[in-house]
Every structure is written in structure tokens, then in C-alpha cells.
Amino acid sequence: THAKRVKRPTSLVEQAINSSAFERIADFLATRRATLKDGSLNKLEKVSAKERIMRKGHLLKDLSRNYTDTERFLNALTLGSNEMSEGEGVNLLSIHASKGLEFDDVYIVDLMDGRFPNRKLMSMGGSLEEERRLFYVATTRARNKLFLSYARFDKIKKINYTHSPFLVEAGLVS
Question: Does the pLDDT value for residue 2 go beyond 80?
């Protein structure tokens, strides 16, 4: 995988936060955060929100310095990091770490069959019912908006995906 080819997690994070894509995503998220219910934009809040997002990027870079192995760093992020979820702004959490919390907007990614439910975990003794409960936990963290996404094709691995069966059970796809 790409993560294994990168020597140090810090270089991976630096590349990401110095990219124009990160800048565009931060701007998009800050605009969403600063858009009022009437559709107008609170420019001061947008600047503040973007600063918080950029700080999170730099915090991620600081955290990455604690790891020499990219795979271990990514695993630590997947399991959740208290430092990354403090304060306002964008929080990157695992579903387990999000239990009991609520957020205005929630994005759930990787909702592909085999990834969610996770076939690898289920083959190691996990249950479909536990995965279903986790899906429920994830989808009930949003106060206002819930965004669900899945990939249809992985260009690097050349793999086609289908959506998670939980999306069918929820009546969101057929």
C-alpha cells in the first residue's frame, strides 16, 4: 500500500497539509461551518473555523512525529486520538471513540461491503450484529446533517466495490 512506501508519517502528513487540496477542503468545511440557517455567511466565523481546521492539520503533523512507522500511525488515528477530538472544528474519530458524543455534521466514509461490515474482523470472531450496532452508533452522532459515502472503484488496487448492506437495510440504496 501507499502507506507502507512512505518512510515517515511526518512526511505523509506534511505532504497532505501543504497540498492545495487540503486548503480547498479546509475552505469548504469552514464555509459550511460559518453558513447560517438563513444561508448567509458569517465571514468572521469562517476565518475562525478555517484557523481551527488548519491548527488540527498542524496538530496531526505534531502527533505524527511520535511514530516512525506509517502503518502504526494510521492505526493510532483509526482508534481515535483525544488530542485530535478536543475543541471545536473538525474531529476525526473512530466510531468507538464517538460513542456518547454528538456533532452538528457527521461524515461516515468507507461504507462498502467488506469494509463495513468489516469481513476481516468478522472472520476473527466479530459478529454482524456488532457491526450493525456500530453502524447505528455512527449514524446517530449527527445533530443536523449526516453524510454517508462509499467508493465504487479503487483506482490503485483496481477493485470494484458495492455499497454496505447496512445502507440497503436503512432504505438508503436499493
Answer: no
In this structure, which amino acid lies at residue 81? S
One-letter amino acid at 1 equals: T
In the DSSP assignment, the letter for residue 114 is B
Residues 70/9, Cβ–Cβ less than 8 Å: yes
Domain that holds residue 149: 93-174
End position of a domain, from candidates 89, 104, 137: 89
Bridge partners, residue 60, by sequence: none
Q: Which residues contact 83 (CB under 8 A, 6 or more apart)?
A: 59, 63
Contacts with 16 (C-beta within 8 Å, 6 or more apart), sequence order: 22, 57
Q: What global pTM score does this model have?
A: 0.51
Task: Locate 55 and state its grid cell.
Answer: 491548527
